[in-house]
Specification:
Bactericidal permeability-increasing protein, domain 1, single chain, globular, 9-stranded antiparallel β-sheet, alpha+beta, 9 strands, Arc Repressor Mutant, subunit A
């Protein structure tokens, strides 16, 4: 089967871009920012109590309401009082591992998420994965400015989800 290569313009979807804009705005929530910091620093899953404890001035009910909204918007997975996933971090093993400077490793939901950790944390990271086409190991550094020269022949695979598909994060 031949390998089909498309440009970003070939796969652009205005509905997806509109949803992404809403999702970017939701990431500015103090609750989600606290969750992402905790996932980066400690890993996960996280208890709602741990998140609430880091947010001075916010009542538990307000945090729960925000978490429910973030769950509904597919920015995290909340089960009971546990946050099991918060984009870009996965608590389940995935083929996309990011190793931080201090050696801590985090799983990410996809290749794009792995590439985004360095600018998100403003630190250099090491990405460990495999080529989904030929199964060769992939290892390269990413700085906040982008992938290192060792990644110049690496391609990211992107698929288009269908409207009736489940949440994006449950497809891991």
């Amino acid at each position: 089967m031949p390998l089909l290569i498309k440009t970003a313009d070939d796969v652009r979807d205005s509905e997806v871009e509109a949803r992404a804009e809403v999702r970017r705005a939701a990431r500015e929530s103090p609750v989600l920012r606290a969750i992402l910091k905790l996932f980066a620093d400690r890993g996960g899953p996280l208890s709602v109590g741990a998140v609430t404890a880091t947010l001075s001035g916010l009542q538990s009910d307000a945090v729960h309401n925000t978490l429910a909204a973030l769950n509904d918007d597919d920015l995290l997975i909340l089960r009971g009082d546990t946050i099991e996933l918060a984009y870009p971090f996965s608590t389940s093993p995935t083929p996309f591992v990011v190793r931080r400077r201090d050696g801590r490793e985090r799983f990410t939901c996809c290749a794009i998420d792995a590439l985004g950790i360095a600018p998100m944390l403003d630190e250099d990271v090491h990405v460990i994965s495999i080529c989904h086409h030929c199964r060769s190991p992939l290892r390269f550094d990413v700085t906040p400015e982008g992938p290192s020269l060792g990644a110049d022949d690496v391609m990211v695979w992107v698929t288009k989800s269908e409207p009736d598909q489940e949440r994006a994060c449950t497809g891991l």
